[in-house]
Write a structure and sequence with these properties.
Radius of gyration: 25 Å
Distance between the termini: 37 Å
Structural class: alpha+beta
Shape: flat
Largest sheet: 4 strands, antiparallel
Order of helices and strands: EHHEEEEEEHHHH
Strand order of the largest sheet: 1-2-3-4
Helix content: 55-70%
Number of helices: 6
């Protein structure tokens, strides 16, 4: 097996199976919207037909733009083509390439569990489209890109101090958010205890109203999350 740059170029695009799924979702949604509008008696044709034309145009653009999204790595740079813009990250400008968990995975079963980001010279992270666990072997592909980066960035490469600091702050924020969510989930059961007390103990009227589920969970969980996230972020930024 060759070195990292010898295994370039590499291109990452939407898989055909995912392409068909996206097309099916768009087509089904469009038919549903069309039937709803056409069967609505209180909508005039002057609104219905222009709206349907605009909807079809929007869905067509969305499908085409998604197909055009890609990540390409060659000997010069990593080229990122997103839905509305492109970005070129020269190897010498890249500060890091990292795998991060996808927060959307918990909300959508078809979302990738992990995604890959490159950090540019300004320290901002750039999502590398389709470089995720739904499309590729992330561990293998990231290893190739990291090896190519180390070989092609130049022998005199050094991290940009401002960018490195920004990357560290980003990692601290991400760790704080994840820790906040984890502790909030763990706090759910303990928070149910005070909610159950009025069932077994006579409480003053004002205290009973405070211990209502909506109040305890509505205030308690956000408070636990905020305190945990802030404490974690400060500790990580202080420890470096």
């Amino acid at each position: 097996m060759g070195t990292g740059y010898e295994r370039l170029p590499r291109e990452y695009r939407l898989k055909r199976s995912r392409m068909r799924l996206l097309l099916w979702v768009i087509a089904t949604g469009t038919v549903s919207v069309a039937l709803t509008l056409l069967n609505a008696d209180d909508l005039s044709t002057s609104f219905t037909y222009p709206f349907l034309v605009a909807w079809v145009a929007l869905m067509g653009w969305l499908f085409r733009a998604t197909l055009r999204c890609s990540t390409t790595a060659d000997l010069k740079a990593i080229h990122v083509r997103a839905m509305v813009k492109r970005r070129r990250l020269a190897w010498e400008d890249i500060q890091d390439i990292r795998v991060e968990p996808n927060p959307g995975a918990a909300l959508h079963e078809n979302a990738p569990d992990v995604q890959v980001y490159a950090f540019g010279r300004d320290g901002k992270k750039v999502l590398l489209p389709f470089l995720d666990d739904l499309h590729v072997n992330v561990e293998r592909e990231v290893a190739v890109l990291l090896e190519a980066w180390e070989e092609l960035r130049g022998e005199d490469w050094a991290p940009v101090p401002e960018a490195a600091a920004r990357v560290d702050r980003h990692n601290a924020r991400r760790g704080a958010m994840l820790n906040g969510f984890a502790i909030s989930m763990m706090a759910f059961v303990p928070l149910t205890v005070p909610m159950l007390l009025p069932l077994f103990v006579d409480m003053p009227g004002w205290l009973g109203s405070v211990l209502q589920p909506l109040v305890v969970l509505g205030l308690g969980l956000p408070l636990v999350f905020a305190l945990t996230a802030i404490t974690t972020y400060r500790r990580r930024t202080r420890d470096g």
